[in-house]
Amino acid sequence: MITNDNMFISFKHKVLEHVARLAWNDELDEDHLDSLVYELIPGPKPQYRCCIYKEREVVTQRIKLARGKNTTANPGSNNVVQVIQAACDQCPISTYTVTDNCRLCLGKACFSSCNFGAVSIGDKRSHIDPNKCRECGKCASACPYGVIVHLVRPCKKVCPVGAISFDENGFCVIDESKCINCGHCIHSCPFGAISSKTYLVQIIDAIRNGKKVIAMCAPSIEGQFGEKVSLQSIKNALIKLGFDDMIEVGLGADITAAYESAEWAEAKKEGRRMTTSCCPAFINMLRNNFPEQYKENMSEVVSPMCAVSRYLKHLYPECVTVFIGPCIAKKSETLDKSVSGNADFAITFGELRVLMRSKDLEFEETDEQYQESSVWGKRFASAGGVANAVIECMKERGEDTTDIRLCKATGALECRKALALLKAGKLPEDFIEGMACPDGCVGGPSNHRAPAEISKAREKLLSTADDRSILKNIENLPLDKFSMFRDGHIEKLP
Questions:
Q1: Is 26 exposed, middle or buried (0-12, 13-18, 19+ CB in 10 A)?
Q2: Could you tell me which residues are beta bridge partners of residue 323?
Q3: Splitting the chain (494 residues) into consecutive groups of 10 residues, what average pLDDT does each group show?
Q4: Per-residue b/e over 248-264, b at no fewer than 16 CB within 10 Å?
C-alpha cells in the first residue's frame, strides 16, 4: 500500500539522488541547480500542490536541505530538523472546531461556557473564532451532542517535548531550545513540510578529494535490507561507492557497555541513579528539558558511534567518519562540538540507498562473513539491549547483578515520564535505559522496512554470529590511547 509518507519520502529521495549525481559530477553550480528544479517540476500543471510555482519553491527548499543548508525561513538555525514553509499551509489553524452535526440547540451551552467570546451562533451551526479561542476545551466539554472536536495537528501531536507551535500565519515553528531532533514529526506531517538536513554532498566531496572516508554501520543495519544482505554485502557495496573501509558500530557498543558497566557499579555503591548515553534524542531530551538531571545523572561515557569514531581517528588521524543508521538525532550528535572526535557525518539507511542509486549500485549477496562485535553489541539496537550488555559486562567481571533495578524506557513519552520521576525524586529504579524510539533503534524513524520484516531478517542474520564475550572482544583494542568520556579524559577499564 502506498501511503502519503511513502510518497513524500520517495520524492524527497528523488531530489537527494539528483543532487548526489550532480555532486559526483562536480555540477552543483547555480545553473545546474536551477535546471534541476525545472526537471523535477516541469509543469505546466501541478502534480502535488495548488500550482507549479509552489511546487518549485518546495523543491528549491528541499535542495537546500539536501546540501546540508538551512531553508530560507530558518537562516540562522542550528537544528537538523527544519520546516519548509511553502509546504506547510493546509492544516487547520483552529484546534477546536464545530462539526456539521451541530443542532443549534436552545441551551447554547458552547456559547455560555466560553470565557473569551470565541463562540458565536451562526445560521446552521456554532462558530469558533480561532483568533479569540484560548484552547481551554470548555465548549467541547459543555456541548451535549459532542459535536465540537479537538483537532491537533499531526506534527504537534507526536512531538514528545512540546517543541512545536504555530505562528500567526499557521506555519509550523520548531522551538530549538526544546527540540530533541528525534524526527518523529517528519514522518507524521501529511504534507511533507518537515524534513532534515542531509550531508551526502559533503561525503561525496570527501571521497572525490581522496580523503580516507570510513563508514560506521549502526547495529540496527542487520535486517534492514533483508536476510540475504549481510554485513559483508553492505561493506562490499560501500567500498564500491568509494569508502575506504567499513566498521561495525556494534564494536563501539561493546566498548561503551564495558565502560558504562564500571560507571554503574560505582554509582550503585554510592546510591546514585544514572541514565544511559547511547540514544542522542534521549540525551537531547535530558539536556534541553531536564538540565539538572543531565548534569547529575547522565552517564559520562560517549555513545558507540563516538567510541568507534575516536578509535578510528586514533588509528587514522586524518580520516573522515560517517555513521549510517536509522536515526535523525544522530545528525545532531555529529554537530555537537562539545564532544570531540565524534563522527563527522551521519546519514540514514534511506540516504545510503540514495547514495548507492546515484552510482547505480545494488547490494550483492556473498558467502563471506564479517563480524567485529559481540551479539551483545549487535543487540544494542533493540529495547533493553544496552542494559543487557552492561549487566553482561558486570557478570563477566564476576560482579553481583541480582539486585539491580532497571527502568527500560522505550519511546519518547516513556523516556519523558521516567525523567520526570527522576526529577521529582520518585524513580524507584536505579538506572534508566532511555531510547526515544519504540522498540529502540530498530524502531527508528528512518528504518528501511516494516518492523516485522526487519525483525525476521535480523534474527536470521544474528543467528549466524559467533558467541564471543564482550570483554574478550575488546581486550586487544588500544583503549588507553583514546577517550571514552565526554570530557576527553582517558581512563583504563577496571
A1: exposed
A2: 216, 346
A3: 60 95 97 96 89 95 96 91 90 82 92 94 91 90 93 91 89 94 92 95 98 97 93 97 98 97 92 91 95 94 97 97 96 91 96 97 93 96 93 94 92 95 95 92 83 88 94 96 95 86
A4: bbbbbbbbbbbbbbbbb
